[in-house]
Specification:
Structural class of chain B: alpha/beta
Strand content of chain B: 15-25%
Largest interface: A-B, 44 and 42 residues
Oligomer: heterodimer
Helix content of chain A: 25-40%
CATH architecture of the largest domain in chain B: 3-Layer(bba) Sandwich
Low-confidence stretches of chain A: none
Radius of gyration of chain B: 24 Å
Distance between the termini of chain A: 22 Å
CATH class of the largest domain in chain B: Alpha Beta
Mean pLDDT of chain B: 91
CATH superfamily of the largest domain in chain B: FAD/NAD(P)-binding domain
Low-confidence stretches of chain B: 1-15
Order of helices and strands of chain A: EEHEEEHEEEHEHEEHEHEEEHEHH
Distance between the termini of chain B: 62 Å
Largest sheet of chain B: 5 strands, parallel
Number of helices of chain B: 18
CATH topology of the largest domain in chain B: FAD/NAD(P)-binding domain
Shape of chain B: globular
Chain lengths: 283, 493
């Protein structure tokens, strides 16, 4: 059992974005940037992979952020400070390859800003110049702006509706940085919706800028046993949970990945409806 | 039941012809009706009644030099416990079995006895061997239903600490053996439930999960500490366990790793699963009861399972139970070459599984949305025997055919899990990534104080072989903890 020490609601607009600070000292101690955890809300729950957004090794806590997009995350969101999550396993996946690259651009889209945060921190610590681009649909949905400011030398914000920062997508900002401002970029790290990662990779590819994309595929065990998370990278099948989650973005078959992400849409709808029927989501 | 009557009648006729020694036939296992059970997840076999068990036990001739024990990887006193069954001392029989086998209710159900103890039974020269496995299951189930076998008295604590990685059959055996020696034992399990393949792999209809829970509970009552959600190689390394956390010895029983796929076009289409994924969703996550359980599983009408082992049989029978109209086994050799237990193959067939033998998949076909629509196969014929001794399947030219299909489940084996190897630099792995041991008797790895056994050493095998490895490892760990000597072929380390 893992106790929820703090709860923060980032956005009350659907789908809601919430953050928990969990008491998980062993995980906090072992976690490195880029790694994720899997949590199970209760004994009937499914295994939900979520990236660690922040941690405090001294206090023995980890921060996880999630968007309420399905039954499992909605039920998770109903929990409050003092409640317990039945199972948390991690850290899982390979840590991000951290070294002094030079100038590193960290791109986070939507909820993807959360997992980019520890990577930006680690890149800055390793002596890189870190410029972060944060993208959200609107100002109210933007998370972690303050923390990203701290973790980076400079941040740039884009919103789809123009309510904050540049009116447009993260790709517009990145393109401007490369083509207009002519900032020499040694590495781009991108986390966000697959479609966004795909287009970020398309922006960097012609300029031969190395790009790490952290993939959030469907997983079951997350420990290298089931193969649900497989993706094609450079024509070869890879397993996100043990070979990733980060891959050379220019080699990832995003089309296939997005197709595989759609496998359980029908079931997700059924689960949501069943759940609403039982009014477990009244709160 | 009619089968039982018939065979009984036949025995009586024989008894008249040979009055000296009446031949009692091997008692048949009562089963749930095949058509009914193909639609539910309840136990297929129902177990012997007391009467059947005693009758079966009287068939054992109590050999002075019993060969059966030599066929058992954990050396159960088989004639001993069978004599106790004959004497209706069922609890004592269970106690005797438990002295050497921690998981009798499991082994009685899933061990391939026909290749082990029963194969060596003297009776099998002239008739059917004694149904040792069914009797083992009977005594274990009897014990569960009629009160507990008392906990054995444990010796005083030695102060030594043993870390067991993986709560599967191998790890549970090591833990059970070493807690009885007075050591402190901690099992680190990656999943949120203990049991390993017993909970994620073997379906409820073959091994009810309540049985596994009971066996695990017995261990924790003995004092074994169980740490769930603990992936060694990630949250802690073996070096940290030994240098910082004070463990004196480590057993690696991390089990099967990543599933093998066939490397044919279309394998990443939606509707293609590894058997591990399909079974894990269903068994560990209970997705057959979706949406009461949150993890979903697709219910397909036409399902092909590739492979001929026990995992393939478990997958195809699961597909049937999830409502498939056509559930196929596609196997590139013939039925005689299938590695699955004959009993499992027969059960699958009775339930309506269709066997497409001598067929190999060459391509999985899909539609625009990325879903499987068909499976293109090639007919095979059997050529000369290969390194496994089985006749090698050779493709017949121009024999391609397409089966309409909604799902393809790949059950052709697993490779080694890389997590421990990646973070334990001085642990020697072989070229396939399995942990190298001195030999399967000593279970010693290249790293002092670290032992390994089960699938992570041998590649995919059986529950009882993993338990046998666990038994060997426990003996060696005990010796190591007592003497501190780490003998290697190059001398003491």
């Amino acid at each position: 059992m893992y106790k929820i020490l703090e709860k923060k609601i980032w956005s009350d607009e659907e789908p809601k974005i919430k953050e928990f600070v969990l008491d998980a000292p062993d995980i906090a101690r072992a976690h490195q940037a880029g790694q994720f955890v899997i949590l199970i809300t209760d004994e009937n729950g499914e295994r939900i992979p979520l990236t660690v957004a922040d941690k405090d090794v001294k206090k023995g806590t980890i921060n996880i952020l999630f968007q309420e997009v399905g039954k499992s995350t909605m039920c998770l969101g109903l929990l409050n400070e003092g409640d317990h999550i039945h199972h948390v396993v991690g850290p899982l996946g390979k840590p991000t390859h951290i070294e002094k690259f030079g100038t590193v651009v960290c791109v986070g889209g939507g909820i993807g800003i959360a997992p980019v945060h520890p990577i930006a921190q680690a890149m800055k610590e390793a002596g890189n110049k870190v410029i972060s681009i944060l993208g959200a649909r609107s100002k109210d949905l933007l998370i972690y702006e303050g923390r990203m400011k701290k973790a980076s030398h400079e941040i740039r914000v884009t919103t789809d509706d123009g309510s904050h920062g540049r009116h447009g997508f993260v790709t517009d900002e990145l393109k401007a940085m490369i083509e207009e401002e002519k900032i020499p970029i040694d590495l781009v790290v991108v986390i966000g919706p697959p479609i966004m990662m795909k287009f970020v990779c398309k922006v960097t590819e012609p300029h031969k800028i190395e790009t790490f994309a952290s993939l959030n595929t469907i997983m079951v065990d997350g420990t290298g046993m089931c193969g649900a998370c497989r993706v094609t990278v450079g024509g070869k099948t890879k397993f996100v949970c043990v070979d990733g989650p980060e891959f050379d973005g220019h080699q990832v078959d995003f089309e296939e990945m997005m197709m595989r992400q759609r496998q359980y849409l029908t079931e997700e709808k059924v689960a949501r409806e069943e759940c609403q029927k039982k009014t477990c989501l009244k709160g | 039941m009619s089968e039982a009557k018939e065979t009984k009648g036949a025995a009586q006729t024989k008894a008249k012809a040979k009055p000296k020694r009446p031949k009692i036939p091997r008692q048949p296992m009562p089963e749930q009706d095949a058509h009914k059970r193909a639609k539910n997840f309840e136990s297929v076999t129902l177990g012997y009644s007391e009467e059947q068990a005693v009758t079966e036990a009287t068939r054992c001739i109590q050999c002075k030099k019993p060969f059966c024990i030599g066929g058992c990887p954990v050396s159960i006193d088989i004639p001993g416990f069978i004599q106790l069954v004959k004497d209706k001392e069922f609890l004592k029989a269970a106690q005797l079995v438990k002295e050497t086998n921690l998981l009798p209710a499991v082994c009685g159900r899933v061990c391939p006895q026909e290749d082990q103890c029963e194969k060596l039974c003297v009776l099998s020269k002239k008739q059917d061997p004694v149904a040792i496995g069914r009797l083992e299951r009977f005594v274990a189930d009897y014990e569960a239903a009629h009160g507990e076998v008392p906990l054995p008295e444990l010796p005083p604590k030695t102060g030594k600490k043993v870390a067991v990685i993986g709560a599967g059959p191998g790890g549970l055996t090591v833990a059970g053996d070493l807690i009885k020696e007075g050591h402190d034992v901690t099992i680190f399990e990656a999943l949120h439930k203990a049991g390993g393949v017993l909970v994620y792999g073997i379906p409820e209809f073959r091994l009810p999960k309540a049985i596994v829970d009971r066996e695990v509970d017995y261990l924790t009552r003995l004092g074994v500490e169980l740490k769930l959600n603990y992936v060694i190689g990630k949250i802690r390394t073996i070096d940290q366990l030994m240098k910082e956390d004070g463990y004196d010895a480590v057993f690696i029983g991390s089990g099967a790793g990543l599933p093998w796929f066939m490397d044919i076009p279309g394998e990443n289409l939606n509707g293609v699963f590894s058997a591990n994924e399909y079974l894990t969703r269903n068994n560990l996550m209970k997705s057959f009861d979706f949406p009461n359980y949150d993890t979903p599983i697709k219910r397909f009408k036409n399902v092909a399972v590739i492979g001929g082992g026990n995992v393939a049989m478990d997958s195809v029978r699961t597909a049937l139970r999830l409502g498939a109209d056509n559930a196929y086994i596609l196997y590139r050799r013939g039925r005689a070459e299938m590695p699955a237990r004959k009993e499992e193959i027969d059960h699958a067939e009775h339930e309506g599984v269709q066997f497409k033998n001598l067929a190999a998949p060459v391509r999985i076909l899909g539609n625009e949305d990325g879903w499987v629509t068909g499976l293109e196969c090639l007919e095979m014929e059997l050529g000369e025997p290969d390194s496994s001794g089985r006749r090698r399947p050779v493709p017949k030219k121009g024999s391609e055919f397409v089966l309409p299909m909604d799902a393809v489940i790949v059950a052709i084996g697993t490779s080694a899990n890389p997590l421990i190897g990646q973070t334990t630099p001085d642990l020697k792995l072989n070229k396939w990534g399995y942990v190298e041991v001195e030999n399967e008797e000593t279970c010693r790895t290249s790293k002092k104080g670290v032992f390994a056994g089960g699938d992570i050493v041998t590649g995919a095998a059986t529950v009882i072989l993993a338990m046998g490895a666990g038994r060997n490892a426990a003996k060696q760990i005990q010796e190591y903890l007592e003497t501190g000597s780490w003998w290697t072929p190059n001398g003491n380390a």
